[in-house]
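Dear Dr. L.,

I hope this message finds you well. Following up on our conversation about the binding site, I have prepared a predicted three-dimensional model of the protein together with phosphoenolpyruvate. For your records, I am including the exact sequence and ligand specification that went into the calculation, followed by the structure tokens. Please feel free to forward this to your student if that is useful.
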Amino acid sequence: MVLDPLIPSAAPRPATRRVVIGDAVIGGGRLHVIAGPCAVEERYVEHAVATAAAGASVLRGCVLKPRTSPDSFQGIGRDGVRLLDAARDTTGLPVLAEPLEVDDVDALRDHVDALMIGARSMHNTPLLRAAGRSGLPVVVKRGMSATYDEWLAAARYVEREGNDQVILCERGIRTFETATRNTLDVSAIAVLRERTDLPIMVDPSHATGKAAWVAPLAMAAAAAGADALLIESHPDPHHSACDAAQAVTPAVLESIVAAAQALSAMARCPAVDTLAECRTTIDSIDDAILQLVEHRAQVVRVVQQHKTRDRQPVRDPQRERAVVERLRARASVLDIGGVEQLVSAVIDVCLDAAAVDESVPAPERDLLLA
Ligand code: PEP
Ligand code: MN
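The resulting structure of the complex is given below.
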């Protein structure tokens, strides 16, 4: 069934293939965020707890790192899987890790919930096949200079082993630009949606290489219809053992998760094939509504500060009527009376939130609210 999208007839569609990693259904009605440090470090369990609290659905748990230079940190090694077990037990979240060679697949299999084939390994067909045979979901990252066709062919190597749990991950491609680590190809989301039913993940961390640029590109990916995001986060980014410049803090991660999920719910056609999907979609939309009302309440607080300074009354019935009228006119499936009730309730809850704003001096606040 297809419902009217928010952006008429042009809204991005979610994937039609569902890939299940733990409790996260990638390609279902909700955008999921996979996050955590670039590399597993000794304090990984602590990092995993912070990542889980920020709203991630799956943990990055890379114990082996494919580094460009042999002089760089190569990962904690296979023994690090004890930390993956501990992180899974402590947080209850599933873990994603990258095998570098065929033997790593067996070594990781019992300690992770999904495998990731890194950009440098996308052309390694024995590794793709071994990952496919593992029976675990497999994220296939796009090779640095791989075309869509080459990337899709790599995914088919996994599928040929009888494994349909495959996700494509755009992580930026090599271009002439040197300001960013890579160039995020947002077009991949739109183009591949027409060519495959596989869910599409976007990694804005490796695409940009800089923490401050991760959030804006995460939003671009969410708005373009990505099914999931892969983000590097670290409680103390400067001391991250690997890719320190691009790691965001748990606080930034938390706001990215909330904003990306809200944006995704607003931008995409809702997934409604099953009752469970309808409910997941409704939860995402409700999250988005609440987040927008919270946002509105913050703006109303600033409005009240301006009014306090200008000695104007808190409520302005004429303006409130205009707000209700404007939205009444925009209703389509909603009943006009319902819209009036809804908008009036939103106005009231935002004013209530502003009324308890401690930043407005109490005597003035009381005077104005009287
Ligand atoms: C990673 O995500 O850990 C990684 C190494 O990224 P990429 O393979 O995209 O360079
Ligand atoms: Mn990294």
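In brief: The first strand starts at residue 19 and ends at 21.

With kind regards,
A. P.
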